[in-house]
Protein 1
Amino acid sequence: MNHMTESFSYVWLIPFLPLLGAFINVFVNRNPRVSGMIACATVAASFLLALGVFFQLIGLPDGERSVDVVVYSWITTGTFAVDVAFLVDPLSTVMMLVVTGVGLLIHVYSIGYMGKDACCVRYFSYLNLFMFAMLILVMGNNFLLMFVGWEGVGLCSYLLIGFWCERRSAANAGMKAFVVNRIGDFAFILGLLLIFLYAGSLTYADVFAADPAVLAPVITAITLLLFVGAMGKSAQVPLHVWLPDAMEGPTPVSALIHAATMVTAGVYMVARCHVLFAQSATAMTAVAVVGAVTAIFAAYIALTQYDIKRVLAYSTVSQLGYMFLACGVGYFTAGIFHLVTHAFFKALLFMGAGSVIHALEHALEKGRDPQDLRNMGGLRDLMPVTYKSMLLATLAIAGIAPFAGFFSKDLILLGAFVNAPALWLVGLATGAMTAFYMFRLLFMTFGGETRLSRDETEKVRESSRVMTIPLVLLAVLSTVGGFIGIPHVFAAGMDRFGGFLAPVFSGLPEAQVPSASVELTLMVLTLLLAAAGIWGAYTVYIRGNSIFDRLVPRALYTLSLEKFYVDEIYDTLIVGPVRKIARGCWRILDSAIIDGGLTLAALTVRSMGNAIRYTQTGVVQNYALIMVVGALVVFAYITGFLGP
Amino acid sequence: MNTALPVINLYAVMPQIVLVSAATVVLIVGLFERFRKGIPYLSLLLLAVSGVVAVNQLGLGPVPFSDVSSMMVMDDFGLVATLVFIAGAVLTVLISISYAEARSIDRGEYYALLIYAVSGMSMMAASTDLFTFFLGLEVLSISLYVLIGFEQRDAGSNEGALKYFLLGAFASGFILYGMALLYGASGSTEYEAIARTLGGERSDAVNLLLLGGLGLLLVGIGFKISMVPFHAWTPDVYQGAPTPVAAFLSTGSKAAAFVVLIRLLGSVFPGLQMEWIPLISVLAVLTIAVGNVVALVQTNLKRLLAYSSIAHAGYMLLPLMADSQDGSASIVFYLIVYTAMNLGAFGVLAVLSARGAPCATLEDLAGLGSRRPLLAAVMAVVMFSLAGIPPTAGFMAKFYLFSALVHGGYVELAVIGLLFSGVSLYYYLRVVVWMYMRPAAETPAEAAGRLSYTGMTALCLSALAILAVGVFPSELLQLAERAVMTLP
C-alpha cells in the first residue's frame, strides 16, 4: 500500500495547478492575451497528469485500484481528525478525466469567446478557480474535502453567472443560484453531521466500512439529506429553478459549469455514497422517482422554449434526471456513464449555441435577441462546422445509435425496466420528447428559411478556429464516445467502461439482466420513439405543418411555455412572505434595536478612545508620571498581600 | 586551598558569540565607503550563518554555560527564540535597504546595530541569571536608542529616540531596583537560587523583598512589551522612528521581553502565582482594552499599528495565567506569527515610503489596490491576519492562545479577549477598505516607479508564511511545543 501511495504522490498537482493559474491571473498577470494561455496551460497540464493517473491505475490489478494519497493532516482536535487526502480510484479518475478534458476544451474555446471582453483576466481566474474546486470535490477522500469543493464550485458558479454584473438580470440570476443552492447545502451539512455523529469519521473508507447496524437508525435520514444536497447542486425538481436563470452567464460557463461538470456533482456524490444509499430502500426510491419526474418535467418545458440556451438548460435538467434515475434503480455505472457522454454532447451543444450567439451578436440589428430561436434559421450553410458538430451532438442526445448518448441512455432504461417499469415508461416518453425538442432547436437554428434580413445574413461568419476546433473534437467524442461501453448483447466483454468502474461498485448486489431478446426489443422501441420525435420536429419546423396546433390543447402548451409557473408559485408562496417578514425584522429588529444598539456601542467605544487619547500628550514627563503612578499601584497591590 | 577553575562551555553560547562577531565584522567593513552597497547583503549572510549555528544546536538539550554558575543556558526555548529574532532581523534588513538608501542612512552602523540588538535579544532569551538578562537588555536597548534616532535630520526621529531613551532608562532603573531586592532576598542573582528561596520557608521581610522585586521587574518588562500603563511611549516612538526600525522594535524587542517573562514567571515565580495572576490578568485586560479602543480613532498608520501592537501584547499576556506548557507554547507560536504579521505591516509602509513622501495616513493608502495590486494584497493578508480571520496564521495563533486559556479555566478572560478582538476588526478592515474601496487621490503620496525588489521579496515571504501557517499550522505548533518542553 505504501509504495502505491508514493507512486501517486503527484496527484495533488492536478487540482493545485489550476489554482496556481488563478493565483497568477489575479495577482501577477495584467495582460488579457496571456491570461487565457495561462489558464489553458495549467488545465492542460492537469489533464495530462490525470491521464497519467489513469494509465497507472489500469496497470494495477483490479483489487488494488483504490489508493488514498494523504497530503497532510489538516485538522486534528481531540476526536476529530481530517486529512487533506485524495482518493484515486476508477470513479474519481473518470471524473478527473471528464473535468480536466472537457474543461480544457472549454478553456480553449473561451479564448475565442471571451478574449475580447474587457474583464477577461478576471474571467479566466474564476474559471481556473472553478477547476480547482471541482477537482477537490471529486478527488477528496473524505466528506469535508468534498464539502470544501462543493462550496467552492458554488461560489465560482455564483461569480461566473453574475460575471456581467452590470446587467441586473445577471446579478439576480447569480443570487438566485446561490440562494437555491443554499437550501441543498444546508441539507448536505446536516447529512454530514449525522454521518459524523454515528460513524465517528468523515473519511469515505471509515464511513463506508461502518457497521450498517450502527447507521441503521439514521441511514434513511442521512441519505435523504445528502440527496437533497444533490438536488440543489444538480438542479432536480423542485430545486431546478436556478439553472435556467444561470444561463445569464457567459456561454462557455454554461457549457463547463452548468452542463458538463458542476451540476453533475450531485450524481457523483450519490454514486460515491452508493454504499450508504444501498442501505436505504426509501432513499433509493426517492432518488429514482425524483430523477424520473425531473427528466420528464424538464423535457416537457424544453418543448416550447424559444431561448436557445434555455432549451439546453432544461435539457440539462432533464438529462440529470436520467442520471439520478439510473442511480435510484441501482445502475450507478449507467449513471456515471451517462454523466460522461452527456459531458461530451452537452458541452458541445452549449458551445455550438455559443458559436451561433457569438456570430449573431455581431450580425443582428440592435434590439433583436441573438439567443431567440425565432431570429435564426437557415444558418446551415453560413456556419457549416458549427452545424455539423451540433448535428452529431443532437443525434447523440436524442439517443440514436451508434452515437454516444444511445449506449448510456439505453443502459439507464434497461435498469429502469428491470427494477421499476413505471419509471421506465416515463424515461421512454422523455426520450421521445428529447428527440423532438433537440431537433426543433436544430431545425429552427440551422434549417429551413432564414429569418435574418439580407444585411444581417451577410454579416454572419463562422467562428474562428480556436472556437471550432474544440467543437470538432467534442463532436468526435459525442460520436464514438459510447463505444467505451458496448452492451453485453452486442459483444461480450466489450463493456470497458463498466469493467473499469466495477471495482468501485463491487459491493452492490449483482444486477438482474433480462434475456437478450427483451433487451433488443427495448432498444428498438427506444430508437423508434426517438425517430418519431425527430419526425415530429421535422413535420412541424421544416414542413411547416401545423398539426400540433390543432391537436394539442392550448392549456398544455401554455403550461410548458410558462414552465409550470414554478417561479411564480415560489414568488407568491415563499419569496413574498419571506420578504414581508424580512422587512418587518429589518425595521424593528435591525434598524431600531440592533443598529441602534451598535451605534450606541460604537459611539461609546469611540468616545472612550478619544478620551484616552487625551492622556497621550506627547510630553515625556507626563509619560514618566503615568509610569510612576502605575508602578505605585502595582507596588501597593503587591505589598497588600503581606497582610497585617 | 584548592580553587578549581570553572569549566566553561563556549559551545553553549555559540549563537551569541557568532552574532556579536557578525555585528563587529559589519561595523568594521562598514567603515570602508566602497563596500557601502554590499553591507546589507553581508549582514544577511552573517545573520544566515548565525541562524545555521542556532539550528544545528536545536534538540541537543539544556547545556549550561558553566558548571559553577549557570549564567546562560543553551536550550530549545532560547534557540527557537533566537531563530525568531534572526528571522525578524533578516526581514528588517530586506525592507531597510531601499528605505535607508533613499534617506541616506544606509551606513554600516545601521546594520551593525541591528545585529548587536539581535545578539542582546538572544542573550536575554538564553539567560538564567539576572546579570546576563540585564546585560542583554542593555545591549538591545542602547542599540535601539541609536537606531530610532538614526535619521538625524528628522525631528520626529530625534524626538522618538530621546523619549525612548529617557523612559527606557527609567524602566531600566525599575528593573535594577527589582533585581537588587531579589538579590537581597535570596543572596544570588541566579534564577534557580531565587526559585529555591521562594520554595522554602520565608519570613515576612524576605517576602516583602521578593514581592517588591517581582513588582519592579514587572514594571520594567511591562515597559518593554508596552503593557498598560507603561505603554505611553509606544505610539510616539513608532511614529518617529525610521519605519523599518519601528518594525523591528515592535516585533523583536517585544518578543525578547516576552521570552524573558515566560522564563521568569514560569520557572522562578510560580511560587508567587497567587499574587501575580490577578495583577497580570487585570493589566492584560487593560492593555487589550486600551490598545484596541484607542486604535479605533487613529488615522496615522504607524500610530494605528502601535496601538494594535499594544493590544497584541495584551493577548500574549493572557496565557501566562494558564500556567501550562500549552499556554507557553501558544505564546511562542503567537510571537512567531506576530513577528511575521507586524514586519509585513510596517514593511508595506517602509516600501511605500522609500521614495517620495512617507506613507503616513489612511488617506495615503486610498486606491492602493489598483495602483499596487501585489503590495495591497500583502497588506490585506497581513490585516486579515492581525484581525484573526481564517485561513491566516493570525487566526490559528488566536485559536491556540484562547484555547489554552480556556483549558486553563480562564473562560471569562478568553471571552473578554475575543470581544475586543471583534472590536479590532473595525480598524484593521478599515485599512483594507481604504486600499480597495476608496478612489486614489489625484497625486498619490508615493512616487511612481518600481518598488524595491528586496523589500517586495521580504513582504511576499511574510505574506506567504502567514497563509502557509494559517493552512498548515501543525509543524510550527510542534516547534513551539518542543521549545517550551525544555523549560523547567
Protein 2
Amino acid sequence: MSTSIQTLKPVVEEQTEKHTLSALVDNEPGVLARVIGLFSGRGYNIDSLTVTETSHERHVSRITVVTEGTPMVIEQIKAQFMRLIPVHHVTDLTVMGKALERELAMVKVVGKGENRVEALRLGEAFRAQVVDASTDHFVFEITGKSGKIEQFIQLMKPIGLVEVARTGVAAISRGPEKMDDHQK
Amino acid sequence: MSRTMTGAEMVLEALLDQGVEHIFGYPGGAVLPIYDTIFENNSIEHILVRHEQGAAHAAEGYARSTGKVGVLLVTSGPGATNAVTGLTDALLDSIPLVCITGQVPSHLIGTDAFQECDTVGITRPCTKHNYLVKDVNDLARVMHEAFYVASNGRPGPVVVDIPKDVQFAMGDYIGPKKITHRTYRPVVKGEQAAIREAVKLLAGAKKPLFYTGGGVINSGPQACDILREFVKKTGAPITSTLMGLGAFPASHKQWIGMLGMHGTYEANWAMHDCDVMVCVGARFDDRITGRLDAFAPNSKKIHIDIDPSSINKTVPVDVPIIGDVGHVLEDMYRIWKNKAEQIDKKALSSWWKEIDGWRAKKSLGYKPSKKTIMPQYAIERLYELTKDRKTFITKEVGQHQMWAAQYYGFEEPNRWMTSGGLGTMGYGLPAAVGVQVAHPDALVIDIAGEASVQMTMQEMSTALQYELPIKIFILNNEYMGMVRQWQELLHGGRYSHSYSEALPDFVKLAEAYGGVGIRVDKPDELDDAIMEMINSDKPVLFDCRIEKLANCFPMIPSGEAHNNMLLASDVEAEDLQSAIKEEGKVLV
C-alpha cells in the first residue's frame, strides 16, 4: 500500500536531511504538548527534543528539536512550528552554518577486575567524569556531540554497561548573533 | 479602568465588548454561572440548540455568512466532546469561532470528576489555539485574545475552557483595547518584490489562469471586489475551489466553473495546460490537484496565502506571497494598472479558443428525464426560482453537495456555506440555522441528502423555537449516494450498507416538528412545489424524490490527472470499474 501511495507523491525524489531547530516559546501549560502533538499528528520525526525555561523574567523556554525529512518537509515543519500561537521564533540552526551541539549522558557500568580497569581507562580517554562509584560500579558523566556519546556507550556495552540517561541535544549557533536576530 | 466582577460576568462583558449579538449553546452543570448571567442580561441573544455539534455548525454558518466571529457556549465533558466535530470542521475551512466550554471546578480537575474531560487536550489538534483559564484575573485577557486569534491571520476556532469556580470567582475586568498579543502577529502586507515579480510573470503569460479559494471570501467583500476588477482587467480565465465559490460571479464570461474532482472539464484542462497559475487564498488540496506528479506540469505558480505553512506544502510554487489576499491583490492590481500591463492579446485569444473547445464538451450535460426528477434538474430549477432573491445556500456532504456546486450559480461571496475540508455530513441544517439567525429576512436553503440531514435533524426543533424559516431541500435517492458511487467505481457495485432500507416519512417528520413537509417526485410538479416551499413562512422539509442511481460527473478518478476526466457521456461506453487504477484505490 505504501509503495502505491509513493507513486502519487510529488515530483523530485529527495534525500532526507537531519536538521536541528531551536524555538523560543512562552512557557505556559501545554506548550510542549502542542509541539509534540504537531510532530506526531503530521507524521514528522523527532530524533531528540530538549526543553527548559531559559528566560525566567519573560517565562520563555527554549525547545531544541532534532528532526529528519526532505527539504520540503523540513520547510513545512518550520512553518507549522511557527504557526503555533505561543511560539516566538523558530531558527533552523543547520542552515545557519555549523551550530554547536552538545549532549550530556550519565552511564552506569557494573563490574569487577579487568573490566573495571578498562571502563575507567575508556572514561579517561573520553574525558568522562566519575560522579558516583562503589567497588562494584561507576557512574560516568560525559558531554559532547551525540556521536561521541554513542561511541562511548557502544564501547561500554561489553564491559558492564547497565543503564544510560541522556539529555538529548542542546544547540546554539556560532558567532556573535543571538537567536532573536534570526527571526523567520 | 478595571472593574471588579465575577468570571461569569466577565465572559458576557467580553462578548459585548467584542460586538457579539448572538451565541449558540446548550447549558449544563459546568456552565450554569454563565447561563445565570445570560438570564439577567438580554443584550445578547442565546440560541438554544439541540446538540452541541449543531451549535458549532450554526456558529460556523453565522460566521461564514457575516464575516464575524461565531460564538458557542457548551458545558464540560460531553458538551465539549460533542462540539469537537464542529471545531475540526471550522479548523479545516478556516472559519473564525470562539467556543466557550465549562469545566469542572479547579480542585476536581484530574480526578475523573462527573462530566470531566481533558477539553484542552482533546481540542488541541482541532483548534487554532485553546486556553484553560485557571485564574479569574486572566479571564478577560484570554477572552479578548481568543477573538483576536480566531479572526486574525488565517481564521480558525479557539476554545476557552473555564472551570466552574473561576466563573464564580471575583476579579478585575479589562477591556479589549488594552490587549496586545505577545507572540501572534500575522503578516498582512505582502512583500513588494514578490508582488512585482508576480505581476511581471502574469503579464508575460500566454495561458494564464486564476485559481481562487476560501481565503478570498475570508479576506472580505473588498477583496472579492478587487479580485473581480483585477481578473476582468487581465481578461484571464478564473476557476475556484468549492470554498471559493461566489468570489467571482458565475454568470461572467471569464468564469470557467469549479475545478477539482467534480469540477468542470474546461476548468481542469485549463489548470492542466496553463503556463502561469495565480493561486489566491487556496491551498492545493488533494481534491483539487488530483495526481500530484501530473499537476499543471508546465506552469509557473504564484501563491498568495496568509498562512506560511500553506506555501510549498504539497505543490512547490515559484512566487510565494505571504499576506492577506485583499492587501496583496490591491498591491498587485495597482502595480498592474500603473505599469499598464497587458497579457498578449493574440496569446490570450488563442488560449480562450482552447478553453472554448473544452467548454464545448458540455461536461455538466446530463440526460433529462420526463419520468423521474434528475438531481441536476432539481438544482437548476431551485437556482432559477431563487436567484433573484437574497438567497443563502448551505449544504450537507455528498453527491448533492457537488451537484449544488455545479448547477447553482453563485454570484456573491458569503452566500455559500459548505463543509469543504472535513466533509462533515450533518453540517448543512444547523449551518442554515446560524445563517438564518444572522439574516432573518433572507431565504436560507440547505441543499441536503436524506442521509446527511438525519445526522443533525434535531435542529429542526431549534428552527421552530426561534421561528427561523429555513428550507431543507432534500435530494432523496435513498442511498448514501457518493458512497454508492464509489462502491460502483471501486468495489464492483457491491453496495455494502449504503442503502437506507428504512427512512422516515419526511413530510410527517416536518409536521411532527411543527414545520411544513412537501414531497414531490414528478419533474412537472417540481416548480410549483419549490414555490410553495419558498412562500412558506415556516421551516420546510422538502422531500425531493430523485433518480436513485444518478452519479455525479464529471469526475477525476482518484489518483488521476486533470486531463483524465470521466464525463457522463463516456461512462456508458467505458467500464466504470476500470476507471480507477490500483494505486488510486487507496486514496479517498
Protein 3
Amino acid sequence: MREDNKIVFTGPVGAGKTSAISAISDIPILSTDARASDMTINRKGHTTVAMDYGILNVGENSKVHLYGTPGQERFDFMWDILTTGGLGLVLMLDNTRPNPRKDMHFFLHAFRNYIEGVPVVIGISKMDINPRPSISDYAGMLEEVRGDLKMLNPIPPIFEVDGRRREDVKNLVMALLFSIDPGIGAAS
Amino acid sequence: MTIENSRMDGTLKVQGLGMDARKEAVFRMAFRMHGRNRYVLLDPGEDIPPQIAIADLDTPEGLTAAEAFRRANPQIPLLATSVSPERFPGFAILRKPIRMESLFPALETVLAQKTVVAGTAQKLENRAGPMHPANSGTETRQPPQVASGIRPPDPDVVPSSRATPAEDSPPPPPARAPVQWRPESIIHFDPDTGLLGLLQRILRDRIAAVITDARNGQILWNIDPEENRAQTPLSDEEIRTICRREIHGLQVRAAQSADSFPSDGSLRNTTLQELVWQAAAWTANGRLSRKILANVPVQLHQWPNLTRLAPLPESLRMAAFLARSPASPALTVKILQVQPAELFNFLAAAESLGLLRYISVPAAHSSSPGAAPAPSVDGPSPADEMASPALAKRGLLGRLFAKIAGL
C-alpha cells in the first residue's frame, strides 16, 4: 500500500468535513474530536481538533485514505503532514459563516502548494439555511481569490452539498476524480 | 536499552515533549497511518521508557522539557520540531510544517544514528538527511509530488496499456465499439424558442413572471427569478411533452398579485435553475443548439451545480473535460467516447444557464463541420492533456471510481 493515495477534506469549523468523510468511509471514522473552545464553541459543541481519518478500500491491496483537517485556523501548521502526495483537496465551505470569501481565500492559500499538483473541489454547505452567496457568487469570488494561485484546475467544481448526504459527497469525490482524469471509468 | 531490543515487541514508544493534547493527537494519528514501524505516542504520565522523544520547541515549556529530557536520558534520541530551526542549535530539528515524507525518515535517522554513535547532537544534525540543519534558514521542502496535471508514473497505478493482472484488479470492462461521430446526422435546434426561450428570457430579465397556456390563459408556471423559485402544477412528463412539441402555445407576462393556480392540484416547487436546466436537456433531445458549432471549441467557465440539477448521463465527466480546456463537440465525443446525443443535451443545459464560453477560431477551422477537430486556441490541446493521465492512472483511479460510483 502506498501512503500517497489520499483525499484531504478541509474547511472551516462546522462545514461538514467529518460528516462527509463518514458518508463514504468504509470504516467508522477515527476522529479526534474534543470539546470546542474559544471562538469555536459558538458554532459547535464539539469539533475536530486534530484530524479525522477514514478509508476507502479499492481492492484487497489498495486503500484511499480520507483525511479531515481541523477547522480551527490556528492548527494550520500541522496540515502539511496530511498533504504529502495525495489525489486531491475537498474544500467544504459553510454558507452561514460571516465571510465565506475570506474562508475560501484562507483555505486555498493554506493549501496553495498542494493544489498546484492536485485538483480541488468545493462543496458549499448549509445553503438551505442561507442561500446567499449563491454558487455563481462563489465562482465569482474564486476568480478574485485565485489571482496569485497556480491551481491545477482553475475552474473547479463548486457544488451545493450536505455532508450528511452520501449522494452529495459521492458527486463531489467523483468530480474530483474526473478532474484528475475525465477518461476514468469510460468503456473503451 | 538498545534500539534493537526496543523493537522486540514490534512497537517504538515515543514520548511527546512540550505538546498539548491537540498536537499529540496529530502525531498519534500520523503514527497510526504509518505502516512500516509501529510508533506509539505515550500518553501523559504513562510510565514506560520511550525509545525516542519528539519535542515541540516553539512552546514555552517545550525547550525546557527537551533539555531536561536530554539531561535525564542521554541515551534516548530526541527529535525536535520548530518553525525556526536556526534558533535551536544543538538539536536535531525537523522544520514545521511537518510532512509525512520527512517525519518518518527523520525519526529513522535519529534512531539509527543514536544506536551507532552516542555522540553529540551536532553530529546527528549534520547526518540527518531529511532534517533541517541547525543554523540554516534554508527551507528544503520538497516540491509538490505532482507539478502538473500529469503525474509521474505511480507504482500503484499501472498504465492500462501494459497492465499486469493484479489480485485486486477488477476484470476489465468489455470492449465497446468506438462511438461514431457522424456530422451529417447532427440536427440543430433553436434554444430561443418555446418554453426554453421563455425561461431564458425570464432568467435574463430577472422579473417575476408567469407562463400561461395560450389557449385558455391557464397559469402553468409562476416564476420568481430573484428568489430562484419556480412553481408549477405540471408533472415531469407534461413538461417534457411541452418541451418537445413543435408548437408550444405558451405565453409569458409579468406576474400579478392576483395570479394563482387552480386549487384542485398539487404544486411543485423547484429552483429556476433546475427548471431551465431540465427544460434545456428535454428540448435538445439529442440535438445540438444552433448557437454551438460542431467543430468550434467551447469551454465551461463554471461547473453546473450538479448536486442540485437533474442528472444527465456522463455530466460529471463532460463537465470536467470542458472545464479543463476548450474543446469542440467533435473532439469531446472522440476523446471521451460519449454519445453525441448525451453531449448535446449537456451542452444545451449548460448553455441555458450561461455557463459556456465560446472560443473563436480561425475561419479555416470552423467552416467545415466534418473536418478534423479544431485546435484549442487557449492552452494545450485537451487530447494532449488527456493522454498521459488517462494511461497512467486508470489503475487506482479506475478502481476508486468504481468504488465511489457503487456506493
Protein 4
Amino acid sequence: MTGMNGVSQVGGVGHPASGPAALQEERPVWWFMGRILTYHPLPQLASGLCWILFHSWPLFPGLVAKAFFDALEGRTSDRLLGPLGATGVDLAAIVALVVALALVRAGFVYADVFAGTTAGFRLRGLLQRNLLARIFDRPGAAALPVTPGEAISTFRDDVETMWGAGWACDVVGFAIFAGGGVAILLWVDPRVTLLVFLPIVAVIVLGHVVRTRLVRLREESRAATARVTGSLGELFGAVQAIQVAGAEDRVVARLRRLGDERRDAMLRDRLLGLALDATFGNTAGLGAGLTLLVAARQIRSGEFTVGEFALFATYLMQVAEMTGFLSWIVATYQQMGVAFRRALRLLQGAPPETLVAHHPVPLAGPLPPVPSLVKRPADRLERLEVRGLTLRFPQSGGGIQDVSLVLERGSLTVVTGRIGAGKSTLLRALLGLLEPQAGHVLWNGLAVERPDHFFVPPRAAYVPQAPALLSGTLRENVLLGLTPEDPGELDARLERAVRSAVLERDLAGFPLGLDMPIGTRGVRLSGGQVQRVAAARALVREPELLVVDDLSSALDVETERRLWQRLAQRRGDLTILAVSHRPAVLQLADQVFMLTAGRASRRRPA
Amino acid sequence: MLTLGEVYLVLAYAAMLASPIETIRTQLQQYQHADAAIARIRELLGARSTLAEPPEPVALPAGPLSVEFRSVTFAYEAEPVLHDLSFVLAPGRTLGLLGHTGSGKSTCARLLFRLYDPTAGAVCLGGVDLRHVDPQALRGRIGLVTQDVQLFDATLGDNVTLFDPAVSDARLLALLETLGLGPWLDRLPGGLDVQISPGQLSAGEAQLVALARVFVKDPDLVILDEASSRLDPETQALLERALYRLLAGRTAIVIAHRLSTLERADDVLLLRQGRAVEYGPLAALAADPRSHVARLWRAGAARQELLA
C-alpha cells in the first residue's frame, strides 16, 4: 500500500460519488450466535461444557434416589442399579453420594466463573469494538443514524443481550438431560413417560404464538429506554442552559414523562416475560402432578416400585424447572433478534458480518501502540480541485449545488456567505464528513475515492465551527495521542503549533502551562481560547491542507489579526481553505468565493 | 422410625429448598449492589454548593435593574481574573463590554448570574448584594446568552421555550418575527413543530434559537456574551436592529468585538487583563480624541471593522 490509497486516476467516464447501499442480506439469529461463540472457541467450549454438565447432571441424583428407596424398601434386584443394591450398600453411603453429586454440580458453576466470565467480557468488547469501528468509518458528520441516546442504549443494553449467546450450551445440556431422562423413564414405564413431556410441547407452541408480541414489546421498551438515556445525556450537557432559562422544573417534568413511558413499556415487556415463565412453570408442574397420580395408582397395583416413583418425581421436578428455562430461551431468542436488528441499524448498511467479525480485543496488558504520523512524498499537495460538488438536504432544501473551485499550493481561499448558505456543508462534503450526491474532489489531479479516509492528517486537518474539546490537559487536547515519526521532534512541533495558533500568551498565564487541566470539555477556557486550542490541534499535525470554519468568531481584532498573519506566514507549506466573514481574513485571501443558496460564485480575483 | 413416605417427604422438601436459597443468594447480591449505589448517591446529595443560600432573601426591586460592581476581585484558582473592578450601570441602560480574549468579560457575566461569588468585593443588582438574593429569583430576572449553545432533541418550539407549554405559539411566532427570524422560520418545513436533531441547525441558526430563548422569559437584565458572533454580517445587522428594540425597558450588557454591535450602547467599559481601562458614556468617550475607545472607534471605522 502506498500513501495514495483511496486515490485513483480519473477515468474518462462519470464518477459516482457514492454507490447505492449494498443489498442487506438477512441473517438468522443463530448465525450470529455461531459467529459469537467461535470467537474464542477454547474458553467458550470450556464454559459450554460446564453448563452442559450442569444441566445434564440431575440425571444422576434421580438414579441415586431410586437406589436409595429401593434399598429402603429392601429390594435388591434392581433393573438399573442392580449392583449397587445387590452389594447392600448402607443408606449413609447413598446420602453421601447425593451430597457429593450436588457439590460437583455446584463445582461446574464455579469453574464457569473462570472460563465463561473472561470469554463473556471479550465478546462484549468485540461487539462494542465492531460497532465503534463502523461508526468511526462513517462520514463524520453523519456517523450516527440515530440519536446518541439510541446509540448508547445499543452499546449497553443490546450488547448485553447479544453476548449472552452462551445459553446455546444450556440448550445442549437441557437436550442431553431430556434425552437421557426420556430414555430411562421410557425404559421404566413408557405410558407414564409420555405424560411428562406433554407440557414441553405446550411451551413451544405457546412461545410461537406470542412471538410477535414479544418482539414488539421488546422493541418498544428499548426505544423508551433510549429516549430516557438521550434525554439524560442532553440534560447533563446543558445544565447551564437550563439554569439560565430557569427551566429546571420543566426539564425534570419532561424526564419524568419519558421515565413514565419507559416504565410502562418495561412493565409490559417484563409482564409478558414473567407471565410466560409462570404459565410454563405451572403447566409443567400440573403435568408433573398428573403424572405422579397415574404413577401412584400403578404403585398400588405393584407395577411400580417406590424407587421408580422417586425417580419419576425427581426428574419431573427438573423437567418443570427446565420447561420454565425453555420458555426463557424462546423469549430470549426473539429478544436477541431485536438486539441484532438494532445493532445492524447502527452499522448503516455494512454487511451483517461486520458486527461479529473476529478482531483482537486487548483486555489485559499494555494497549497496542498508536501508529505514528508519517508524511510521504506522495502526500504533498500541489493542487486541490473541487468539481461539481452537490449535496442537498431533502428535509430543509438547504445544501450546496454544483460547487467547483481550485486551490493552488500555498494559497488562502475564503468562502463567505449568509447564514444557511451552505458554507459549512461545503467544507464537510469536501472532507467526506458528509456524502455528496454528485461531484468529486481531485488531489494533484487524482480523484479521491474515500475522502473521509483520505482527508486526514498529515494530508488535511479540519477546525470545525464549534470545536469539541475533551476533559483533560491542554497538551492532551492538542496532541490527541499524536506520535510523530521522530518522538524527539514533538516539543518543537508543539511549540510551532502553539505559536501559530497565538496561544503563547495564554499559556504564559497558566501556571501549569500545557499541562493545565481545562475542565469538563474545556469549560475553563474562554470561547476564543477553545478555538485557538482547536487550531493548535490541527496545526501540530503539520497538514498540507488546513480547512477552518469560522475560526476567529470568538477572537478580538488584535488576536485575530495576529493569528491570520501567522497562518499566512506558513503558506509556503500550508494550503488554507477557510469560511469567514471577517474583513481581516478576506483582505489576506488569494481568492474569495461567495455562496448564495448553495451556489458558489468567485468574487476575488473576479 | 420414619415411614417410607416420610423419608420421601424429607427428600422432596430438601430438593425444593434449593430454589428459595438460590433466590436469597441473588437478592443478597443485589442488596450489596444497592448498598454501594446508595452510598454514591448520598455522596452526590451531600455535596454542598459553595454559594451559600441567604437565610432571609431580599427581594429585587421591580422593573429594569441597576448593575453595580463594588471593588470586585475574582480568581477561579490562584491567579485573579478580575482586579478591584468597580462600575455602576443605571437601570434601563445598555453597556458595551470590550476587551481582548481572556480579559475577564465572560467572568463578569458569570458573576452577575451568580455562577460564582467574588473573591473580594460585591456584585449588586438593583442595589442588593447578590449573596442576599434567592438564586432562583435572581435567575428568573436575568437572561444570559452565551456563545456556547445547547440544543435539545425536540421541536423548535420546545427548544425556544425549553418545554414551557404555557407560552402560546402566537407569542412565540411574534417574538421570532420581531427578531427578524420570520423568513428563516418560513423556510423550515413544519415551522415551530419541526423536530430539531443536534447537528441539524448551523451554528449561526443555533445562536438565533438561543437568542429567542432568552426573551421568552421577559428578563429585566439581559447579558449577551458574544451572542451573535457566528452570524454573517447581514444577518447580524438585521438581528441587532431587532435586538435593541427588545432591549428597550431593560438593562443590558453586550459583550462583543464588533463596532456595529456597540453603536447603540449607552455606556462602554473597556477591560484589560481584568482591570477597567476606561468607563463612561459612549458618546463622551467617542468625543474625547485621547480615549482608547475613540481610537478604536476611528480605527474600526477606517477599516470598516471590529473593535477590541
